[in-house]
Each structure stands twice: as C-alpha cells, then as structure tokens.
Amino acid sequence: QKDIKRGLAYSTMSQLGYMMLALGMGSYRSALFHLITHAYSKALLFLGSGSVIHSMETVVGYSPDKSQNMVLMGGLTKHVPITKTSFLLGTLSLCGIPPLACFWSKDEILNDSWLYSPIFAIIAWATAGLTAFYMFRIYLLTFEGHLNVHFQNYSGNQNTSFYCISLWGKGCSKRINKNFRLLRMNNNESASFFWKKTYRSDENVRKRNGGQPSINIVGFDNQKPFSYPYESDNTMLFPLLLLVLFTLFVGILGIPLNQKGRDLDILSKWLAPSINLLHQKSKDSTDWYEFLKDAIFSVSIAYCGIFLASFLYKPIYSSFKNFDLINSFVKLGPKRKRWDKIINTLYDWSYNRAYIDAFYTTSFTGGIRELSQLTHFFD
C-alpha cells in the first residue's frame, strides 16, 4: 500500500491473527498480553504517522492523497527527528525486537504454537518475518532517502513541468516560469545537494517558483511558509514520548519473576482466576535456556525480514556509489525480465489485497444480484 495509515491498518490484521491464534490454542494469557503490548506500539505508530502527515501538509497542502502517500515522502529523518525515533521504536517493537514490548508477547505466542501444532507454528513464524518486512518498508519509504516530492511530479506523466500544489491539494495554474529547472540528481550535484540543510523557504525559493507564494497554513498555527516538512509541536510530541515509555517498559508485565520455586508475573497475578490450558500443568520455573534459544530463532526471522526490506527499499545508492550486488541483479539480461514479471505479479497481488475484494464482489455480490434479478423476473 502507498497510504501510510492504510499500511499500518493492514499490519493490524496480522497482529489480530496472533491474538486469535493464542485464543484458539487456549493460551489466553498470551493473547491478552499481546493485546496490551500491541495496543501501545500501534498507538505510537499511528500517532507517529499523524505527525508525519501533519508535517507533510505544510509542503503539499491539505490533500490526503498526497500528504499520506509514502511515495512522496522519504528523507524525513533530518526534518522530524523526534517523530522518526519514536516511529522506529514502534516499528522495532512490532517486529519483535527485544527488549521492546511486543517481543515478549509475540515470542510467547510463537513458542506456544510449537506446543500446539507445528503447522500453525510455521504459519506464525512466517508471519513474523512478513511483519518485519512490511513494517520496515513503511519506515524506510517514509524516513530514509530523500524527500521525493521535490524530485518528481505527482502525476508521473511529465518530467519537465513544475507541478504546483495549492493549499487544498489541487493543481495550480500551468502558467509558470519557463526558466524554472526542476531539482534533479546528477553525478556532479549528488554529493553537495543532499547534505545541504535547507528547511524553510525564503525569497529565493519564491523566485524559483515563478513568483508564486509558498504554502501558508494559517489555520494550523503556521505563520511562516515552508518548503520542507518540520517537526510537530509539543501538543503532538508529548503523547508520542509518553507512548515511547510504555512501548519500552510495558513488556515488564509479562516477564516471569521467580517466587517460591515457580514463576509468577504481574499479568498472571491479574489473571489468577483464569485458566491457561497450555500451561496449567506447568508449575516449575521457566527454563531460561529454552527461552533464549527460542528468542534467538524468532529474532533471527525478524532480522531476515528487516534485511529483505532494507535490500529492496533502502536507498543504497546514497551510501554506495558502486554497489556490486545491486549491479549484478541489474545486469541479468533476459532473466531480469522474467524476474521483473514475478515481482510485478507479487506487487499487484499484494497491492490488491490478494484480490479478495474482487473475488467477493464477483462471486457473492454479483451472484446475489443475478439471483435477485432472476427472482424478480419470476415474480
């Protein structure tokens, strides 16, 4: 997905799947534990995305199609550092990286899945890798690289004209300065341009825009025009930092504490009357060796997903001018076309949500309508 909020919303489905899996296995405590940890991490991510959208609106105007589009983002690390740090912590937590909150609950569900069924365990572990992949895809497209809205037209059809965006997201008049040259990267300017720290627009930017004024959102307490995103105010940053604290420390609720020969955590004290079918016969203390062994395996899968996302979405060209591994894939020749077809097929399948909506519309909605028309004709 290209919409940052939609990507986060779809990531919630896999986490709900973990909770339903734990409930189906009878591991009620793990399900509730993951509900708590996931709630804080996902709240942090959604509020972080809101901060990103708020900062992008100062550049592209109030237009959800543009301000929420990750294709137009990138390079926000130096513009919104606090939002970036909090978003990264939420992403790592959802990926299951210790010692953040979701690691403790997700790892517990993954371990319980092996006790219940190896088939469910394989599905759960594969989902953990996919979670790390698409969460870091969102992070990399949003914060790494360079601000793409300054380097390409939103329509993508014309590369020579300047696309002006008004306050409400509509295109401005096409009457622009013909001498305006769109900023592009070449071999001579790449080293100096991307490290130039320019945040606010000035008279030079206004002159380059053909005399057109930059965006000034008065209703959002922004009295100065901006050509780059800027950090949100304290009203939005304070809840972010508060959720960061919960994301860091709420996992303590499920860490077992040895008391009188058996492990009892804070969450288990709260749920003392409830029954956990998978662990009702376990009265011994936790085997920390087994826990560490399983944790290393789950974290390794998460890092595989992170590495794959970094390989596909991180702008490696900004760090390595001659990256041999990338060049070897580019020079595959005929195999490259076949590989591109496979990638495009997977992308279309993922972007269209596995065509579930199309199948539902064709099979169920269309079938019911035809049956209704047949019934109406019979009547």
UniProtKB/TrEMBL annotation:
<keyword id="KW-0813">Transport</keyword>
<feature type="transmembrane region" description="Helical">
    <location>
        <begin position="237"/>
        <end position="257"/>
    </location>
</feature>
<dbReference type="GO" id="GO:0009535">
    <property type="term" value="C:chloroplast thylakoid membrane"/>
</dbReference>
<dbReference type="GO" id="GO:0015990">
    <property type="term" value="P:electron transport coupled proton transport"/>
</dbReference>
<keyword id="KW-0472">Membrane</keyword>
<dbReference type="GO" id="GO:0048038">
    <property type="term" value="F:quinone binding"/>
</dbReference>
<feature type="transmembrane region" description="Helical">
    <location>
        <begin position="114"/>
        <end position="136"/>
    </location>
</feature>
<keyword id="KW-0812">Transmembrane</keyword>
<feature type="transmembrane region" description="Helical">
    <location>
        <begin position="16"/>
        <end position="36"/>
    </location>
</feature>
<feature type="domain" description="NADH:ubiquinone/plastoquinone oxidoreductase chloroplast chain 5 C-terminal">
    <location>
        <begin position="137"/>
        <end position="379"/>
    </location>
</feature>
<keyword id="KW-0520">NAD</keyword>
<comment type="function">
    <text>NDH shuttles electrons from NAD(P)H:plastoquinone, via FMN and iron-sulfur (Fe-S) centers, to quinones in the photosynthetic chain and possibly in a chloroplast respiratory chain. The immediate electron acceptor for the enzyme in this species is believed to be plastoquinone. Couples the redox reaction to proton translocation, and thus conserves the redox energy in a proton gradient.</text>
</comment>
<dbReference type="Pfam" id="PF01010">
    <property type="entry name" value="Proton_antipo_C"/>
</dbReference>
<dbReference type="InterPro" id="IPR002128">
    <property type="entry name" value="NADH_UbQ_OxRdtase_chlpt_su5_C"/>
</dbReference>
<keyword id="KW-0793">Thylakoid</keyword>
<feature type="transmembrane region" description="Helical">
    <location>
        <begin position="295"/>
        <end position="313"/>
    </location>
</feature>
<keyword id="KW-0521">NADP</keyword>
<dbReference type="GO" id="GO:0008137">
    <property type="term" value="F:NADH dehydrogenase (ubiquinone) activity"/>
</dbReference>
<comment type="similarity">
    <text>Belongs to the complex I subunit 5 family.</text>
</comment>
<keyword id="KW-0934">Plastid</keyword>
<keyword id="KW-1133">Transmembrane helix</keyword>
<dbReference type="InterPro" id="IPR003945">
    <property type="entry name" value="NU5C-like"/>
</dbReference>
<feature type="transmembrane region" description="Helical">
    <location>
        <begin position="43"/>
        <end position="63"/>
    </location>
</feature>
<keyword id="KW-0874">Quinone</keyword>
<keyword id="KW-1278">Translocase</keyword>
<keyword id="KW-0150">Chloroplast</keyword>
<dbReference type="Pfam" id="PF00361">
    <property type="entry name" value="Proton_antipo_M"/>
</dbReference>
<dbReference type="InterPro" id="IPR001750">
    <property type="entry name" value="ND/Mrp_TM"/>
</dbReference>
<feature type="domain" description="NADH:quinone oxidoreductase/Mrp antiporter transmembrane">
    <location>
        <begin position="1"/>
        <end position="130"/>
    </location>
</feature>
<protein>
    <recommendedName>
        <fullName>NAD(P)H-quinone oxidoreductase subunit 5, chloroplastic</fullName>
        <ecNumber>7.1.1.-</ecNumber>
    </recommendedName>
</protein>
<dbReference type="GO" id="GO:0042773">
    <property type="term" value="P:ATP synthesis coupled electron transport"/>
</dbReference>
<keyword id="KW-0618">Plastoquinone</keyword>
<comment type="subunit">
    <text>NDH is composed of at least 16 different subunits, 5 of which are encoded in the nucleus.</text>
</comment>
<dbReference type="GO" id="GO:0003954">
    <property type="term" value="F:NADH dehydrogenase activity"/>
</dbReference>
